[in-house]
Amino acid sequence: MRRSALTHPVRWSLIWPLLLLAPLARASVVVALSVEDLARRSDLVVLGQVVSLQAIWASDRRHIYRRVVVRVEESWKVGACPEEVEVVVPGGELDGLGEKVVGEPALAAGMRGVFFLERAGTTHRFVGLAQGFFEASPEGLVQRTEELALAHPSARGFAISPHGAEAASPMSVSALRARVLAVAHAAGEAAPTAP
Q1: Is the N or C terminus of the chain more exposed, i.e. has fewer CB atoms within 10 Å?
Q2: Domain-by-domain residue ranges, the chain?
Q3: CA atoms within a 13 Å half-sphere pointing along the CA-CB vector of 104
């Protein structure tokens, strides 16, 4: 009697690990970052509002990016801060084509929140993908990490939580500001100034 391809024990031993990874297929796996980790890794942390988004081609025309302009209301980590900050986010739609980068924050004009940013040439990018943006909502500031599978470091390596499994509790602006300023103060950084 001949076995089918799906009942053969050797084939199943190759397939079942792939089935376990299926929930991660629409998620980016990143190391989980606390607010303090985000603040330490950021060159700039601002409370602001998205005023414009523009899809642009990469110089080689192989990738699409969104150029996002954020009007700064408050700067929490940097000495002097401009009135507006440019953030480049991978993905977007242009010339009838679209590119999606799973795990990047989904931004729209008018969105308000806290941006944890690092320098990328003359612009900025998010620290930790969507972990680096806390959206302002009626409940408070909410970190949206639905498309991220977060890897938590442990003594044995990393424990990975499935994407969307960790819903962060809303946080007040003042609570988040205090945590970021504590990190900046501990690092001896200059006090932020208004734009």
Answers
A1: N
A2: 27-186
A3: 17
**Token code pair at residue 28:** 């980016």
Segment 40-80, tens digit of pLDDT: 999 999 999 999 999 999 988 899 999 999 999 999 987 66
Query: 187 vs 33, 136, 190, CA distance in Å?
Result: 18, 27, 9
Topology of domain 27-186 in CATH is OB fold (Dihydrolipoamide Acetyltransferase, E2P) (2.40.50)
Gap between the Cα atoms of 185 and 35, Å rounded: 15
CA atoms within 13 A on the CB side of 121: 4
Interatomic CA distance for residues 153 and 5, integer angstroms: 38
Residue 19: pLDDT band with limits 50, 70, 90: very low
Please give the model's pTM, rounded to 2 decimal places: 0.80
